[in-house]
Amino acid sequence: MNTIWTDSVERLAPLPEYPRPQLVRERWMSLNGEWEFAVSDDRVIPESFDGTILVPFSPETPLSGAKKKPAAGQYLWYRRTVALPESFAGRRTILHFGAVDQIADVWVNGKQVASHVGGYLPFEADISSALEGESFSLVVRASDETDGGFHTRGKQKTQRGGIWYTPQSGIWQSVWVESVPQNYVRGLRITPHFDDAEVDIAADVVGTESAFAHFGGESYELPALIPVPDFEAWSPENPKLYDFTVTCGEDTVSSYFAMRKFSVKKDDKGVPRLFLNNAPYFHNGLLDQGYWPDGLYTAPTDEALCRDIKLAKESGFNMLRKHIKVEPLRWYYHCDRLGMLVWQDMPCGGGHYRPAVVTAPLVTGRHLRDDAYSRFGRADELGRREFADELVDMVNHLYNCPCIAMWVIFNEGWGQFDAARLTDAVRFVDNTRTIDHASGWHDQGVSDVKSLHVYFRPFRFRADRKGRAVVLSEFGGYVCEVEGHCFGEKSFGYKKLGSAEELEKALAKLYREQILPAREKGLAAAVYTQLSDVEDELNGLVTYDRSVVKLEPERMRAIVK
C-alpha cells in the first residue's frame, strides 16, 4: 500500500534534510541511501552481503526495497563505504544514528565504535580514531525481539491485528556524519523562564573551550540567563520562535527557542485546568500513531510529516498526542514552527500483557496497584531498570522542543510499574511540563491530571477528588471505511459509520452532547481517536495512505471549536 509520497522518495538521497534542527552545523553529510544488506543467524559479520536496502527504511517496509526480512532470533547486517569530504580532514568525525530498533552494534574499519539498546532514541560515536584515509567501511548489526522480550516496542506485535501493528526492525531514522573541531558543543539545554522574561541556556561541551550564546546582538558565556524583553509568547495561534547561535572555539551551531509556559492551575471559578502562558487553554487533540503503509515508523518524506500536522491544525485541533512512539526530531520542529502542542508518550515494553489488566478496565473501571510486577508483565528487574533509564533519556532528548506540553509515562497499563516513582523521576529532570502518569486506567493518584479513556459509554464530566485537572486522553474512534483505501479486509474501531455524511453527523453529536458540555464544566483536554487510519484501525480522519480526508477540514473545525 503506497502513500501519495511513495513515488517521490529520492532513491539516492531519501530524507535529505538535516536531522537535528536545534543543533545545526554546516559540515555534515547524510548517509541515507542504498546500503548493502544481509540477514543471518550468526553474530559474526557475514563474508558476503547478498542484497541492498534503502536506509532509513526498515526491511519490513515496501520503501526499503529489501528482499529479505528477519525472522525471530536473526540479525540484520548493513554495510557501506563512506567517502568523507575534504572539509572533514584534520577534525573530529561524529557518526549519528537517529534510531535503530532494538539493539545495535556498529563497526568502522573493523573496529567496534558503538553499542546501543533501545529502538526509539539516538546515539552517536566519535569515530576519529578508527579512520584511515578519506573513506571508511561502516557495518551495523541490529537485532529485534519485538514482543519476545522486555525492551520497549511500542505498538509493534509479532502477530499484528486490531490496535497492534506490523513490527519493523533495524535502522528507521536518518544516519549521518558531521565534522567538528577538537572543542565542540555536543548538546544544549534550553529552558524558557516565561514569568521572568529570560531563557536559561547551557551547553554540553567536549574539550576545554568555553561556549557563548549570541542573541539579540549580545554574547553570553554559557551557562547564562539571557533576557528576552518584550517577547512574543509561543502558542498554537502564534508559534513564535527565536533563533540564536552558540560558538565554542572554532565550532558554531545554530538553534532556536520559544517563550511559553505550561502548568495546571485553577481558573477564576476554582476549576483545575491546563494553563498555557498563565491562562486556561483547552487542549483540543488528536491521537497520532505516526505509522505509514510504505515506511511503517518512517515517513516517506519530510513533506509527509508536515502534512499530517497541517491537516490536524486545519481541522481545528491544537494538540497531537504522539502515541507510544518517539518521532525524528524534525517532526517536533514542524510542530514548533507550525504551532501544535504535543503530548509525548513513552513507548511501552515489558512482557505479555494480560487482558484482565489492560482490557477489562475499559468496561469495569477498576484500577490496580502497579507494584504487582508480574501482573503487569514487569517481572524482570532488568527490564524495569531499562525502561526507567530510557524514559529519562527520552525526556532529556526532547527537552528543548517548545511544542511538548505533557509527558505520558504509561498507557492503559501496558507494562506499567512504579508510576509514582517514575513521575518523580521525570519531574526531577523536567519541572517545566505537566505529566500524565497513567493514561486510561490504573491511576495511582499522582501526577498533574486524572486521565480517562472512554469509548463504550457516554462521557459525563466529574471533578477529580484529588483536585487534579481532568483530561479525556482517548475517546471516539469512529470507523468510516473508504473503499480502495483500506489496508486489508478487517476493520477495527468503536462505532461504524457508512459514509462521510454519517461520520459528520455522529461526530457533531459526540462533541455537541458530550465534549463541549464537559469542557464548560471543567474538562481540560480531549483527545479524539484518531488522526489517520492505521492498518486494521479505520477510525482516522484521513485514510492510511493519506489520500482521502474523510471530513473536510473546515467542516471538522466547525464541530470541534
Itemize the secondary structure elements and their pairings:
Layout: E1 28-30, E2 33-40, E3 51-55, E4 75-83, E5 92-97, E6 100-101, E7 103-108, E8 111-117, E9 123-126, E10 135-143, E11 170-171, E12 175-180, E13 184-193, E14 198-206, E15 211-215, E16 218-221, E17 224-227, E18 242-248, E19 251-257, E20 262-266, E21 272-276, E22 279-280, E23 283-288, H1 302-314, E24 319-322, H2 329-338, E25 341-345, H3 355-358, H4 361-364, H5 381-398, E26 404-408, H6 419-429, E27 434-436, E28 449-454, E29 469-476, E30 478-480, E31 495-497, H7 500-521, E32 525-529, H8 553-560
Helix pairs in contact: 1-2, 5-6, 7-8
Q: Could you describe the 3D structure shown?
A:
The protein is of the alpha/beta class. The protein has three domains: 6-180, Sandwich (Jelly Rolls), CATH 2.60.120; 184-249, no CATH class; 262-560, Alpha-Beta Barrel (TIM Barrel), CATH 3.20.20. Helix content is 16%, strand content 31%. The chain has helices spanning 302-314, 329-338, 355-358, 361-364, 381-398, 419-429, 500-521, 553-560, and strands at 28-30, 33-40, 51-55, 75-83, 92-97, 100-101, 103-108, 111-117, 123-126, 135-143, 170-171, 175-180, 184-193, 198-206, 211-215, 218-221, 224-227, 242-248, 251-257, 262-266, 272-276, 279-280, 283-288, 319-322, 341-345, 404-408, 434-436, 449-454, 469-476, 478-480, 495-497, 525-529. The strands form eight sheets. An eight-stranded parallel beta sheet has the order 27-26-25-24-23-32-29-28, with helices on one face. Strands 3-2-4-10-7-8 form a six-stranded antiparallel beta sheet, with no helix packed on it. It has a four-stranded antiparallel beta sheet with strand order 1-12-5-9, with no helix packed on it. The chain is globular and about 70 Å long. The protein starts with 27 loop residues before the first strand and ends with a helix. 48% of the residues are buried.
